[in-house]
Write a structure and sequence with these properties.
Length: 480
């Protein structure tokens, strides 16, 4: 597409995100919330199966986690929050009840916002609302068969749906927003947030309009994306497709679309031109809830959220770009945070380890590590005191990661300590000078290279364990 055509249009993006909450049991019954290992239709009971005459019992933990997420989304809870459940009526085989229990006009989370850094600026995306609802079952359509299969293990697992304002304008902003939600739900600890298992699923609404237009264009909604790349690509693809339509004098149809990852294309699923008639009404089987502010506040204590971590990292001189490497790893971020709290002066050293070799080691060997914030700080202190070269510090940390041990003892045992005992090194340096009278004379006669030879000989005499800056200093003092 010619840039001058592309530039006539503004892209508008709003995202709905379904987050599966990390409760033990489902939203309205005591069935396990996690069916990953279960055979189809084994993790079900008469409630989530939707048998007539059964009654839902609301999972208190789901309500607490939803409020915790609300705090992370910067929702200001009112003195008393009135929230209730509603029936959304629809007929589809993934929901045997014939309706979904969700929230319509009194959601558990109201207006908030999400902020994240992008290309040197801060992007703020409005949150319209977030509500609690039960998930549907899973349908599969076997290749070449004339039937579909229903698995209700997932039915009534607890979801929060986070609805954003149509505030995003570029593929990068859409991707950044989704990534920040991913960060937030993990920092807040409200979800397993496993994208592969569909713990977070994104619906991406895209429309285009001529720049300067007041009205929003007609949107398409591409459903059930579970990767950030797919979100970015969906926005790019829909933008292009819609601009081409408009440029040809056609109109964009309001519809639900899917994403074909193999073809890197969206495809139409169903029209949304006739407004869906869900006949919402208050759920008669669940009482409304009135939540005092103090109760919501009690769920919203965080040592730190991504934004707090970014501030701390910037304070110790980590660039925004590097900071995101650690921000994207909540478990390592926690280790850094604790180490920094114990000993701020080693923050950069600890960061360099965690955001570098540690991430690589996790990929290769798994997340298990014996490195505690205390041990990291101890090794940092040894490096700062000149007892460890940076290479040896890394080697020591690798060893300590696999087996807990006393850092100084292990470093001595493994011969990783740098000789920084000034008295010892002075003796060695003096011996080297006595053994190399020609080099000493050459240096005193102005030959700088002779100095290097003396440093080299001293390092060799310490078997490579001498602290180089200290050896330099001792030689200089003696050569005059
Ligand atoms: P529905 O459930 O019908 O999709 P919601 O109100 O739950 O409706 O969600 C609509 C989502 O689409 C929100 O994230 C909103 O910001 C976004 N949106 C609404 N209108 C537009 C538009 N014209 N272009 C892009 N996004 C839009
Ligand atoms: Mg929607
Ligand atoms: Zn059940």
């Amino acid at each position: 597409m010619k840039p001058e055509i592309r530039d006539k249009y503004e892209v508008v993006i709003g995202i709905e995100c379904h987050v599966q909450l990390a409760t033990k049991s489902k939203l309205f019954c005591s069935c396990d919330n996690d069916s990953r290992e279960a055979e189809p239709n084994t993790n079900v009971c008469e409630v989530c199966f939707g048998m007539p005459g059964t009654l839902p019992v609301l999972n208190k933990r789901a309500v607490e986690l939803a409020m915790r997420l609300g705090k992370a989304l910067n929702y200001e809870y009112p003195e008393k929050l009135h929230t209730k459940f509603d029936r959304k009526n629809y007929f589809y085989p993934d929901s045997p009840k014939g309706y979904q229990i969700t929230q319509f006009d009194e959601p558990i989370v109201g207006e908030g916002f999400v902020e994240f850094p992008l290309e040197g600026r801060t992007v703020r995306i409005g949150i319209t609302r977030a509500h609690l609802e039960g998930d549907a079952g899973k349908l599969t359509h076997p290749e070449g068969k004339d039937y579909s299969l229903v698995d209700l293990n997932r039915a009534e697992t607890p979801l929060v749906e986070i609805v954003s304002e149509p505030d995003m304008r570029t593929p990068a902003e859409a991707k950044g927003y989704a990534q920040e939600l991913y960060n937030l739900v993990r920092y807040a600890g409200v979800s397993q947030a496993n994208l592969y298992y569909g713990n977070m699923r994104f619906d991406v609404n895209v429309s285009v309009r001529l720049k300067g237009a007041k009205e929003l264009g007609t949107r398409t909604e591409t459903k059930n994306l579970n990767s950030f790349k797919a979100i970015e690509r969906t926005v790019e693809y829909e933008t292009r497709r819609q601009i081409v339509l408009v440029e040809h004098g056609d109109r964009v149809r309001q519809e639900t679309r899917g994403w074909n990852d193999a073809k890197q294309q969206t495809y139409p699923m169903r029209s949304k031109e006739d407004a869906d008639e869900y006949r919402y009404f208050p759920e008669p089987d669940l009482p409304p809830l009135v939540i005092p502010r103090a109760m919501a506040a009690a769920q919203g204590h965080f040592d730190f959220l991504p934004a707090d971590l970014r501030v701390l990292l910037a304070k110790v001189g980590i660039s925004p770009r590097d900071a995101e490497v650690l921000v994207g790893e909540p478990e390592l971020a926690r280790v850094w945070y604790e180490a920094h709290k114990l000993e701020p002066k080693h923050a950069r050293f600890v960061f360099t380890w965690l955001a570098g070799p540690e991430i690589k080691l996790r990929e290769d060997h798994g997340p298990e590590s014996q490195l505690t914030p205390r041990i990291l700080n101890q090794v940092a202190a040894m490096a700062a005191a000149g007892q460890l070269s940076s290479t040896n510090a890394k080697e020591l940390l690798g060893l300590l990661r696999a087996h807990a041990a006393d850092p100084s003892k292990l470093a001595s045992e493994r011969g990783l300590m740098q000789e920084s005992n000034e008295g010892e090194l002075a003796k060695i340096v003096e011996q080297v000078m006595a053994d190399h009278p020609q080099a000493v004379a050459d240096y005193r006669a102005g030959n700088q290279r002779a100095f290097g030879a003396l440093v080299g000989a001293s390092m060799k005499a310490t078997k490579g364990k001498g602290n180089p800056p200290l050896i330099n200093q001792l030689l200089k003092d003696r050569l005059g």
